Structure formats: C-alpha cells, structure tokens
Amino acid sequence: MVTWRTALLLGLAALTMPLWAAPWWAAAVAGCVVLALSAVDFVLAAALRDLVLARDGDSAVRLGQSATVRLRVRNNGTRTLRADVRDAWVPSAGAVTPRGRVEVPAGTSVTLAAELTPTRRGDRPAIGVTVRSHGPLGLAFRQRREHPATPPWRLRVLPRFTSRVLLPEKTARLRVLDGTIVTRGRGQGTEFDALREYVIGDDVRSIDWRASARRSDVMVRTWRPERDRRVVCVLDTGRTSAVRIGDEPRLDAAMDAALLLASLAARAGDQVDLLAVDTAVRASVSGAGRQVLLAKLVNALAPLQPALVETDFELVVGEVLRRERKRALIVLFTALEPGALGEGLLPVLPRLVARHKVVVAATHDPVLRDLTTREPATAADVYAAAAGHRALSERARVAAALRRGGVEVVDAPATEFAGAVADAYLTLKALARL
Questions:
Q1: pLDDT by residue (tens digit) across 142-175?
Q2: Angle of the 290-301 helix axis to the 250-267 helix axis, nearest 10
Q3: Quick one: which of 4, 269, 313, 428 is 20 to 30 A from 23 by CA?
C-alpha cells in the first residue's frame, strides 16, 4: 500500500506537465517512476512475519487508579523495522498509547508502554495490535491489522474501596469493645476467656466459686466477645442494583460497604462468606482466611454487573439456608423498594429469620434528604420536596415491616452507608446478638 507521499509526488509531477513538449508522455513517465519507487520501497519494508510481540505489566488495578501495560516488539528479521504500532483497547479501559513511528534494528526490540485509567469495573481486554511497516523512502508500507501473534492481555479492574479510610476507626472501636467486655465481666452470649484473681470493682456474679475453693483465693471469670461466628454478605445484583446513587450504581456502594464489613469482621475473628445473587448465583466466596480474604473478595466482585431482572429472593433464602447450617449474621445488601421486597423478600423472610440473624442494608441518594430539607423557592421545588417526602416515607414503611419481622435495617445515604453497616455489626457484636 502507498502513503500520502506517493500521492504528493504524483501531484508535483502533474504540476510540471506544461513545461514538457509532450505533457502526457511526461506524466506517464513520472507516474511510472513514482510507482516503481513505491514498489521498491514496499519490497524493502521489513516483513511483518518476522515480528514477535509480547506483553507484561499490571494485571489488576482499582477503579479510579492507573495501570501500565507494556508491549514489546521484537524484530527477528534482517531489515530495520520502521513502523507505526497501534495498541488498541476497549474504550472503557481508558488507554493512552504512544504515538509516532518507531525504529527497531534487526535483532533488537522496543518497548511501548500504555497507560490505562479504566472507567468501569470488570475485565478490560486488549483488542489487538496493528503494525504498519514503512519502507526507507516512506512511499509504501506493509500492514497487518490485529497481528496474529498478538499476546492476549486482560486488565482486571477491581472495585473501589474508599471506605478503607474508616477501617482504623472501626478497628479501634472493636478493640475498645474487647476491653470493655473483659473488664465488665460476663455479658449475654459472650464466650469464656480466662480466670484471674478478684479485684475491687469486679462483678461478684463473675466469681467462680469452685476455682476459688481450689486455689484458696477469690477467682473471677473473664469473658470476651463472640468469635468464630459466621458473617455472610449477600449482594442483590438484580435490577434495583443498577440504580445510580450519586455518580455510581447502587451495586458499587454495596460492594464498598461489604468490603469494609468483611475486613472488620475478619479482624474480629469471625469468618466471612459472600454471595451475589439475582436469578442465579453470580459470585460466591467462602472459607477464606484473613490473609487472603480481601484479595478473594475483590476478585470475585470485580466482574459483577447489575442484571436487569427481578431478584429471586426464594433462591437467595434457599442458597443461604443450604450453605449456612449454623447460626450466622446475614447482611443482605438490597433496595428498600415496596414492590421488590413486599412481593419477593417478605413472604420468605420468616424462614431465614428463624435460623439466622438478618440485617437488611440499603442506601439511598443524599439528594432525597436535600429535597426535603431545603426551602422551596418555586412550584417545581414544592413538587420535588413532595416527591422526596413520599420516597422517604415509603422506605420507612418498608423498614418498619422488616423490623416487625425481626430484621435489623440499615438505611443510610451513600456517603455514610459503609460506616453505618460497620456500626450495626459492632453494635450487634457488643450485644452478643450475632
């Protein structure tokens, strides 16, 4: 194939036609010369079959951060490669690739680095590499779109974990909780920790009279918060999870809260499982140790996307009951919508509450609060405020129905949602209700 330089030379030859005695013969000769030079240039261009392509770099990155993936082009031929290389990615990968021509002498290689700032979670694949090999005169080139030797690469974009900044504060509260329960003595549902000598101020109900008789001293029992409990995070990935809360889907806010809860529960000595369900089980993580828990969770959550279907809560309850034989804390991340919960969750909820402690965690857009608190200036503001009040009252009605069924409800704006879920877990742990 020829370049714009060939067309430029042909145009210049056409401009000189009036200077020749036989213009048409001169044009034919000039055209033949230019085409011959282009053919020679095409033959001298480095062959694309001699190229070897390889990739390395980052394979995972958090949403909102940048990653670097390098493409190495090696020339195993006998001619110098003068090429334009286009490394194509899906648009949501946010790839910024080098532009311009590269020269690769025979037997050497060059590395091209692509900076990627993805705009969506999930797997962002590289589409292909297009190489255009130019001749030394720049008149012709060889090109192969999507080089067959292109190495596959897939960048996994992990969910944001912006609530990580709250983890030190919640962990400190957990340590205070441990110390408070140990010094105050026994609390309902707590576990025995150790025996120690009685000191003034201890609850006399904690005295172990048998141990005191054996040691000829007054001994008291100390207790610690419940450990080795099971915490199950259930993500509703149905149609309600696709609603945008602020600048992200509700599902992403639920993921952020679930990661904070899982990290906190793991530090408290509890075992964390995760389940993502709509009309089928989309992700499942169970039995993860503390050291690998967060890595397994973020990898399982990364490819999840909302499904535009009604969530099958019968399937949700059935899966939880099948997987969790012992009592556990079930945290269901869903939406407080009368239609979805009234027809789907409420009829099957008693089966779940009978065996487990259930928390329904839902988030709403902070705009709802703003609509109901600001002073209306126009008729449109009045209607907007009425709509906000109606939405909040419907949520309150659903929450009241859930609480009557023995369910704890967490309903908070997106900016406070993760912290509110963690606080609910700490409160239940302090009351020994896990």
A1: 887 655 567 888 999 999 888 999 999 998 888 8
A2: 170
A3: 4
Q: Which residue has the tokens 């900076």?
A: 115
CA distance 199 to 65: 54
DSSP string, 321-389: HHH--S--EEEEE----HHHIIIIITTTHHHHHTTSEEEEEEEE-HHHHHHHHSPP-SHHHHHHHHHHH
Beta strands 408-413 and 357-364, pairing class: parallel
One-letter amino acid of 195: L
Homologous superfamily (CATH) for 230-430: von Willebrand factor, type A domain (3.40.50.410)
Instruction: Tell which CATH classification among 3.30.450.40, 3.40.50.10490, 3.30.565.10, 2.60.40.10 matches the domain 48-158.
Output: 2.60.40.10
- The domain spans of the chain are 4-44, 48-158, 230-430
CA distances from 107 to 83, 131, 230 (A): 15, 17, 59
Positions in the chain whose pLDDT score sits under 70: 1-5, 7-10, 12-27, 29, 145-149, 178-193, 223-227, 287-291, 434
Whether 48-158 shares its CATH topology with 230-430 is answered: no
